[in-house]
Design goal:
Elements (H helix, E strand, L loop, with lengths): L2 H16 L5 H11 L4 H8 L3 H19 L8 H14 L4 E2 L6 E2 L10 H6 L3 H5 L1 E3 L13 H13 L4 E5 L6 H12 L5 E6 L6 H11 L8 H14 L2 E6 L20 H11 L5 E6 L16 E5 L20 H7 L4 H15 L3 H5 L8 H13 L2 H10 L6 E2 H6 L5 H13 L3 E5 L3 E5 L1 H10 L3
Parallel strand pairs: 3-5, 4-7, 4-8, 5-6, 6-7
Antiparallel strand pairs: 1-2, 9-11, 10-11
């Protein structure tokens, strides 16, 4: 058993008993206890007190004891679950929680004799033999994305959606959302492979990697390799995640233009939507691929999920910040962006001793160094035409109409329209639909551009 399987198992039990999934501190207690860490270590990591972690642990052990009919404590948590695991393997059975249909699968489980189980569950040994999550992040906290998670669940588990893109600004929570889905549902897939394109490789090398992970010897030509890959996608239920997809696109051009050496990725993405199979590919990106756009979603098995900022102040709990009645103002000021909230919370703790009211009294939108670094990368990667549009928009505190914006720029209609569309694909400008369509920058990006990009 690995730690992700354990967290998934406990989450199922908690959900069955309470109707709620593990929260961040509960998940950290399960993980930390499995890794034989002290409550003090777990408390420091979660920014809560040791007593609070102890209380959470006591509630979990009591709940698990009732569900599993075992006397579970922190001291025997790991050994008890390992014993259940071994016992289940020896009996060639599937462990069932309180007679419900929430099953926990073990790698050594063999085919069950009952037809219902055969129809419901794929042989687990086959399932877990090709799970490669080495490059996937470890999730400690998961905040306020239940709606998006349910959408992802529906597209993958209830629909035949072969290609899904998770889109939004860097740090908005795209990778965390996908990993949370995997932690909850990894037993439902025979093959799960997570790959990052932060430093992209050619499509040929990527397919070699995927085939090797599935223990297949890649053939000589790219066409033969693609056939091998799609045979796997057809015969096995697979989930393949490609993170940081924006890195295969060309800098200083409009969004979604492939670099020449990665142009054949476009062929792969089209094949995923046009070829019949039972698998799913998730693309995580800061900008939209051309293949993800469709005028009729009913005709193509593709979906795009665009993430925006969080609205719930729960993200600030256990951060050490004070003046809870002002937290919503802080969330609004920093657009609910998880990374921005994290970096500004650190500054408030260091400079204002955690007093949010004193920070807000400065009455100035502070752009931290981490924000500056992120915005700098974004601004200097976009095309010169997009930069002109951004600079023009930054001069206004209010949204501006398309006609007024165009009148302030010396751009052809073609360049202007393409630039606006590209900026929307990068989630740098917002379209506001009223009686007249208006365009606007986020306040944070506007402040950055005004202070650091005017030259």
């Amino acid at each position: 058993m690995n730690v992700n399987e354990v967290v998934t198992f406990v989450d199922k039990i908690v959900f069955e008993k309470t109707g709620k999934h593990l929260d961040d501190v509960q998940a950290a207690v399960v993980q930390g206890t499995w890794e034989r860490r002290t409550y003090d270590d777990i408390a420091q990591e979660c920014n809560v007190t040791k007593n609070h972690v102890g209380d959470i642990g006591a509630e979990l052990w009591q709940l698990l004891s009732q569900a599993l009919n075992e006397d579970i404590k922190k001291t025997n948590f790991r050994s008890t679950l390992e014993r259940i695991y071994i016992k289940s393997s020896e009996n060639s059975n599937i462990y069932n929680i309180n007679g419900t249909n929430n099953y926990f699968y073990y790698p050594q489980t063999l085919n069950h004799s009952h037809q219902k189980t055969q129809e419901t569950n794929i042989n687990t040994q086959s399932k877990l033999s090709h799970h490669d999550l080495t490059l996937a992040p470890q999730i400690i906290k998961f905040h306020n994305r239940e709606t998006e998670l349910q959408t992802l669940n529906y597209w993958i588990l209830n629909q035949t959606t072969n290609l899904i893109s998770i889109l939004g600004l860097s740090g908005i929570g795209k990778t965390t959302l996908v990993k949370r889905f995997i932690d909850l549902h990894q037993q439902k897939f025979e093959v799960i492979i997570w790959r990052s394109l932060k430093f992209p490789k050619s499509l040929n090398l990527l397919i070699n990697d995927l085939l090797n992970t599935c223990q297949q010897q890649p053939k000589a030509t790219i066409n033969d390799k693609l056939k091998q890959l799609f045979d796997i996608l057809t015969n096995k239920k697979c989930l393949i995640i490609l993170d940081d997809v924006q890195n295969i696109f060309t800098p200083h051009q409009f969004a979604g233009k492939y670099q020449p050496e990665y142009q054949d990725y476009q062929t792969l993405f089209k094949m995923i939507t046009e070829t019949q199979h039972q698998s799913h590919v998730i693309l995580i990106s800061q900008e939209q691929c051309p293949e993800m756009e469709s005028l009729d979603e009913e005709l193509y098995p593709i979906k795009s999920l665009e993430l925006s900022g969080l609205e719930n102040i729960d993200i600030l709990k256990n951060t050490g910040l004070k003046d809870e009645d002002t937290w919503l103002n802080l969330m609004i000021l920093y657009t609910g962006h998880p990374l921005f909230i994290k970096t500004i919370a650190i500054s408030i703790k260091k400079i204002f001793n955690g007093k949010v009211s004193e920070f807000l009294a400065e009455n100035e939108l502070i752009i931290t160094q981490e924000m500056q670094s992120l915005f700098s990368q974004i601004f200097h990667k976009i095309s010169p035409i997009e930069q002109q549009i951004i600079l023009a928009l930054s001069k206004y505190n209010q949204p501006i109409s398309r006609e007024d914006l165009k009148s302030r720029l010396e751009l052809s209609s073609t360049n202007f329209i393409n630039g606006l569309e590209s900026l929307q694909k990068r989630y740098l400008i917002h379209k506001i639909e009223n009686d007249n369509i208006l365009f606007d920058l986020s306040p944070l990006f506007r402040e950055y551009v005004r202070n650091f990009c005017q030259d």
